[in-house]
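Posting this for the archive.
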Amino acid sequence: MNFLPIVNHSLAYNRAIDGLRGIAILLVLLFHLFPAQFSFGYVGVDIFFVLSGFLITQIIYTKLKSNKFSFAEFYRNRVRRIFPAMLIVLASTFLIGYLFLFPSELAALGRNIQSSSLFYQNFRLMGEAGYWDEASTLKPLLHFWSLSIEEQFYLFWPILILILYKLRLNLTLSLFITFLALLILPQFVAIDPFYHSLSRFWELCLGGVVFAIIDRHGISNKLYQFRFAVYLLFVAAIGFGYGNNSFNVFKTLFITISAGLMIALLISHKNQKFFSTSFLVFLGLISFPLYLWHYVLIAYAHIFGINVPANGIWLAIISIFLAYLTYIFVEIKARKQTSYMFAFILFMIAVAFWFLGQYASEGLIKRSFIKSDTYSTVRIQKDKNGEMLFRAVMGYDASQEYIKATTSKKSDKFVLILGDSHAYTSYDGLSKELTKRGYETVLMANSSCLPFLNNPLGRSETERIKCHLKSTDIYKFISKLHPQKVIFISRGLKYITRQGFGEIDNEESIANLSFGTPLSNQKYQEKFYENIDDIFSFFGKNNIELYFVLENPELGFSPKECMQRPFGIFTPRKCSISLDSYEKRMRSYNATIYLISKKYQNVHILDPKNSFCDNKECHAIKNGKILYTDDDHLNIEGSIVQARGLIGQMFNDKK
């Protein structure tokens, strides 16, 4: 690797450890480029966490033992290691966004620049789309969540190690107890299992435990005789993540333990042939700038309508090239700087980026070369009316992700909107139209959680349990409030096929969605429709009018691709799908729903087709306004268009 210089390290250089970094970044890169084929690649971040925890603990403890540790030096080194490449990437991300993003997109990017520049991006993302959700592919700075967790870890970890050292406590035992506490705590507190720092610190702590064991017991040489078992375990742990699309603490524990064993093995065998191969070491050396660059390019490709898997090789090459340049001309030079003033200036530039993000978060509509995006909408997931109404009826706080209402007081004329995220995005229009009819409206919905009575769906047992508890609350609420009418809105066919639709959605498979027991596709679909029947029966027994809404036309592409971006580089696409393809796709599902509904006089089927389709096409634009926020969720304008058609059917309005 003579053509690629090695930066100065606080520790003796280990070629094999860089090879392990290379494997980790390769997994992440493949996962983001080809998620269907490399669905296990997300574990690369977990490997990075363990490796970071190991190395940072080694740096701190080694300097403490030689009486050379300094907090000022420690944080100076972290700043010169992290900030230069990060600031270059943030500047480039903002520049692309300023030139090509619509106001609502730039506003969202601005908020993400703020949280990325000061390392609280993981907390920002907790209130937004989940990591595996389709919407996350449109966030150029999504990947800064892991960098934020690492930097937050670095704030308290040196203090803990210093205290343990000064008190002369057993490092191995103390860190192991800390690891167990950090692992167990998130299982008993209501925090985000993926993004929250306390849900992830145990992974970095595990790296510290590995160092402590090696430092005290020197197990690396002993472990060498079991090297093939360690290799096998490492490969198995990576493969165990295949098909996963939600955070699973057991799978994560498996990969982190195997990564810890691999580090312990490699720490004394620096020239292990596979891990020391030139390609892996090269990727390892540029892994940090490569991690920063690759997702920015991938997210912008999604935003601009470029097929990522089809162009994955080119995106990988460009990412590696930019990472190489950043490593040579930025990282190498920055890490030679020993001045504390240099580190302080970098930190102040990061603060300046926070203010730049604040400026961008206003959307910068006045840019002369950008047309305002008429589909831009801002929604809140919960409002005080909804929360107060639920508390008044039930006596405790709601656990629902989406809960809103037009009043906090009980009323004899309530319409409940029930379902998943599609119910949430339909609420604005429906509540507006129902108010005109003299009705109050309440929304109760949860993302990717159909409110089944007894058989919750989920991608894991934990997910199923949570969905069941939320659904149970909903039906208790219905029994006490007894609304006059209920409108059920959800995505349907995706739950049936367990596969996405279209260029974007096909990348998100939910093949592991289940009722908790393995079922053939036919049995699974039968059980799904049985649950729909149970819902219809519940409302029949409670003498409540139920209006079941069939699916809106799904586009299969981002509606933003329909708008002309500046400079004519990205050609807008036709913003519609054929009516025939929509009807053909929905035919079996719709027919089955109609058949089940015929058994119940109080169940009515509402079809949104005429709100979006003419006799040939189903349109994502009406009267010059885009109706969708993504390929299947409506924006506020779309919800109004949908509501006018549905309310007309509910009240038998004459056309």
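The chain has two domains: 29-360, 384-556+586-616+633-650. Residues 71-100 form the longest helix (30 residues).
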